[in-house]
C-alpha cells in the first residue's frame, strides 16, 4: 500500500497553476544523453541572437494576463470575451455565514479594465440574459465587501435565466453544503465555447454576443470543485452545464465530466501542483466514483 502524503492546495497555487501550469509541467526535459533533467535546458547566450529588449518594449506591451484579486476571490480576465477566463474561490463553513446583505449590492463596471474591453450594465438590458455570477454572492456572506465584489461585471457572464436561477443555483448550493464535511472547498468556474457540427459537416465554434460592447455569451459553463478532505486526500468534481434552460430536477451527477475534457476545451490545467495519478487525488466523473 502506498504511503499517502497529505497535500495542501492553496487558492493561490490553484490560481497561478491554472495560468502557469502548462509551462511548469513541461520543465522535466531530456539532456543529450537521454537522462531526465529536473530543470529546463537553456541555450547558451552565444548560440542565440536576440534583439534588444528595450527596443521591443519601447512603446509598451499590447497585452498581458489580467489577474484580479478581490477580498474573497481571484479571476483571470479575458478582454476579448468581456469576461473572466476563470474565477477561483475558497469556501469555508464560516465564510458562507454572516450578515452581508445582497439587497445592498449593485452590478457595476470593473473600472480597472480599459473601457474598450469591459462590459456595462446597458449591454445586458433587454438581452434576455441574466447577469450570471461565477463567484456566487451567497458564498461570501461573511463580509459585505466580499459580497459586493461578486457584483463587479468582470465576475459575470450572460446566463440563460432558466439555468442561472435553477440548475446552476442548485450547483452553487451544493458546493456550499460540501463545506460541512471537508477542510476546504475550492471552486473554479468559467466559460466554455464548445464546437458544434453544422449542416456542411464541419465543426464550428459559434457564440452570441450582446450589447454595444459585444459581450460574449458562453455556450457552456464549467465548475471544477476541489475538495480537501480532513485526512489530506484531494477529490475533484468537474461539472459542465449548457447555457440554456436546464431542468432543475436533473441530478447534478449527470453533469459530471472527465476533468481532461474541461482542461482541453478551456485551455487550462487544474491542480497542476498535484500529480493526478497519485492515490492522493480522486476524480469523480459521470458514471462512477
From TrEMBL:
Record-annotated ENPP1-3/EXOG-like endonuclease/phosphodiesterase domain positions: 70-277
EC number(s) stated in the UniProt entry for this protein: 3.1.30.-
Entry-linked InterPro entries: DNA/RNA_endonuclease_AS (IPR018524), DNA/RNA_non-sp_Endonuclease_sf (IPR044929), Endo_G_ENPP1-like_dom (IPR001604), ENPP1-3/EXOG-like_nuc-like (IPR020821), His-Me_finger_sf (IPR044925), Non-specific_endonuclease (IPR040255)
Broad enzyme group: hydrolase
Keyword Mitochondrion (UniProt): yes
Top-rank lineage group of the source organism: Eukaryota
UniProt-annotated location(s): Mitochondrion
Active site residues per record: 133 (proton acceptor)
Cofactors named for this entry: Mg(2+)
Positions with a binding annotation for Mg(2+): 164
Keywords: Disulfide bond, Endonuclease, Hydrolase, Magnesium, Metal-binding, Mitochondrion, Nuclease, Transit peptide
Any GO molecular function: RNA endonuclease activity
Major location category of this protein: mitochondrion
GO annotation, biological process: apoptotic DNA fragmentation
Domain DNA/RNA non-specific endonuclease/pyrophosphatase/phosphodiesterase: 69-277
Keyword Ribonucleoprotein: no
Name of a matching Pfam family: Endonuclease_NS
GO CC annotation, single: nucleus
CDD domains: NUC
Protein name: Endonuclease
